[in-house]
Amino acid sequence: MVVYFAFLFHIYQPPVQLPFVIKQIANESYRPIIEALRKHPSAKITLNINGTLTEQLNDFGYMDILEGITALASRGQVEFTGSGKFHPLLPLIPSPEIRRQIELNYETNQKFFGELFKPRGFFPPEMAVSEEVFSVVKEMGYDWIINSGIANTLPEFPTTFISQHPNGLNLLFRDDYISIDCAFDKINTVDAFINRLYYKQTSEDYYIILAMDGETFGHHVKHAINNFLIPLFGVLPHRNDVKLCNVSEIIDKFPKINIQNPRASSWSTMPYDLAHDVPFPLWFDPNNEIHIEQHRFFMYALTLIHLSSKYRDSMDDEKKSIFDNARNLLDRGIHSCQQWWASKRPWYSPDMILRGLNEVLMASINAKRSIPDSAPDIQDAMELIMEDMLKAQNRIILSL
């Protein structure tokens, strides 16, 4: 009997992150992880790197990190996933915006990683899934999607088979318990980790998916690379009972049986959230007034962008430039962190909330400015929308 397991590391920083924070994380986490993999050629991970972080690493001069990831991918030690470029919570935005974020992510990462960036699988930001997300991901050609364990609706948790969505998308579910214990430093030795992998009393081969923020290693848990990851990578080649794979290798090894529609949920969703019909509690809690106003604010901004986009062909070059700037600001501005920092479970940061709001507001103002003078009725309509939008913004600011 063999336990096959995969690490899926998710690395991302919000587009409004401060440069000194990225520098700290690059030194504490990204570079040491790359070095640990480089020194252990049999070790491998599945990696989600959102395109916004790829660009930040390039813009701040951390090309060695991008080159290190590229080298590891060329050696088969890194398998990439697709995602949304600016890390929006996909179930909370319309299908065209989901598709746009996925396309932007693909274009950005292919620009830097070239043909090595050919992801089979998909990592939804915060593992937030819904039927709309499954539909778009399948339509865009992905083979599999990772879900939190809480999303599984089958009586048996999939460990000896791969279940599928009715649309044919292969479904992977992370082991929430082991993943969370690793992330919160409750499992911090090789022996403790392997003992946890052996939780099933069976003679059958089975698999376990462990998914967490890559920043866990070295940044959130300072000793996790030297005291856990490196020793683990060193031990595994000498064991026949535990095998480290990437996620796609597990997909290829195990049979595809059982159809299910996973629950709308995220990797921060708890059973009591589902019991109260709150699938995305850290980003859209109906009892959180800031979340409600943030969502309203985003929807107003999306409306303004889509109204102005209908006039792009009739814009002069100056107006097109203004519109394109608005579109880029909105792409950036709907990142999920500002809602996360408004959740108060227990995280709360007025600064992060306001940084996100500012980009969305600038996007809206530029969308309004881009409308040609020949369309005064649309300009009037956009002013009315902006009035309501500013009321939502005011309610958010007064509540901070």
From the alpha carbons, calculate the radius of gyration and give it in angstroms: 22 Å
- The stretches of 5 or more residues where confidence is low (pLDDT under 50) are none
Pattern of helices and strands: EHEHHEHEHEEEHHEHEHEHHHHHH
Name of the top-level CATH class of the largest domain: Alpha Beta
Structural class by secondary-structure content = alpha/beta
The total beta strand count reads 10
What is the count of helical runs? Answer: 15
Provide a short characterization of the protein structure.
With 400 residues, the chain is an alpha/beta fold. The protein has helices spanning 19-38, 51-59, 63-74, 95-113, 131-139, 176-183, 190-197, 225-235, 247-253, 271-275, 289-309, 317-333, 337-340, 350-370, 376-399; strands at residues 3-11, 45-49, 78-82, 121-122, 144-147, 162-164, 170-173, 206-213, 242-245, 256-259.
Structural commentary:
The protein is of the alpha/beta class. It has helices at residues 19-38, 51-59, 63-74, 95-113, 131-139, 176-183, 190-197, 225-235, 247-253, 271-275, 289-309, 317-333, 337-340, 350-370, 376-399, and strands at 3-11, 45-49, 78-82, 121-122, 144-147, 162-164, 170-173, 206-213, 242-245, 256-259. The chain has 2 domains: 3-273, Alpha-Beta Barrel (7-stranded beta/alpha barrel); 289-399, no CATH class. The protein is globular.
Key descriptive features of the protein:
400 residues, alpha/beta, 7-stranded beta/alpha barrel, 2 domains, ten-stranded mixed sheet, 15 helices
